[in-house]
């Protein structure tokens, strides 16, 4: 039996979106203004994209398992591995970067804020859809043989 799903407050939804946007934008602005080679900027940009995807994927697979939706063990473990890997790669990259310690901290905190925001936004979207607060973009039909809704 899945636990009851509560509707997230408007303040939490706004804070989640703010965390995602602020973390991502600040991280990207830091990259834009950084005095590093283009390949280094690409490395950190790729880490942000991979990190956001892996964090959302982990949140979804954990939530699916909690709600009794089947998730393969391979995918579930791959999600955990991906989040750990992206955090490890960011740590190694920042450890070896020729940046001031304050810049390294800036990138680490903006990255973690963006990951938190992505997970929280995904949770809110799912909770709002489950409580009828928003309409999912792709609706499931009531019956598999039911005709598609008319336009």
TrEMBL record:
<dbReference type="InterPro" id="IPR038972">
    <property type="entry name" value="YiaA-like"/>
</dbReference>
<feature type="domain" description="YiaAB two helix">
    <location>
        <begin position="12"/>
        <end position="64"/>
    </location>
</feature>
<dbReference type="InterPro" id="IPR008024">
    <property type="entry name" value="YiaAB"/>
</dbReference>
<feature type="transmembrane region" description="Helical">
    <location>
        <begin position="105"/>
        <end position="121"/>
    </location>
</feature>
<keyword id="KW-1133">Transmembrane helix</keyword>
<dbReference type="GO" id="GO:0005886">
    <property type="term" value="C:plasma membrane"/>
</dbReference>
<feature type="domain" description="YiaAB two helix">
    <location>
        <begin position="75"/>
        <end position="127"/>
    </location>
</feature>
<feature type="transmembrane region" description="Helical">
    <location>
        <begin position="12"/>
        <end position="30"/>
    </location>
</feature>
<keyword id="KW-0812">Transmembrane</keyword>
<feature type="transmembrane region" description="Helical">
    <location>
        <begin position="74"/>
        <end position="93"/>
    </location>
</feature>
<keyword id="KW-0472">Membrane</keyword>
<dbReference type="GO" id="GO:0006974">
    <property type="term" value="P:DNA damage response"/>
</dbReference>
<dbReference type="Pfam" id="PF05360">
    <property type="entry name" value="YiaAB"/>
</dbReference>
<protein>
    <submittedName>
        <fullName>YiaA/YiaB family protein</fullName>
    </submittedName>
</protein>
């Amino acid at each position: 039996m899945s636990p009851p799903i509560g509707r997230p407050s408007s303040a939490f939804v706004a804070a989640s979106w703010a965390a995602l946007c602020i973390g991502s934008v600040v991280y990207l602005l830091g990259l834009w203004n950084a005095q590093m080679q283009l390949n280094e900027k690409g490395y950190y940009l790729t880490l942000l994209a991979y990190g956001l995807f892996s964090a959302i994927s982990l949140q979804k697979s954990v939530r699916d398992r909690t709600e009794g939706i089947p998730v393969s063990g391979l995918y579930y473990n791959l999600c955990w591995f991906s989040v750990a890997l992206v955090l490890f790669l960011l740590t190694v990259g920042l450890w070896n970067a020729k940046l001031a310690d304050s810049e390294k901290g800036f990138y680490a905190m903006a990255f973690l804020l963006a990951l938190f925001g992505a997970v929280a936004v995904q949770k809110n979207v799912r909770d709002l859809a489950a409580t009828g607060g928003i309409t999912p973009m792709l609706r499931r039909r009531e019956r598999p043989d039911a005709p598609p809704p008319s336009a």
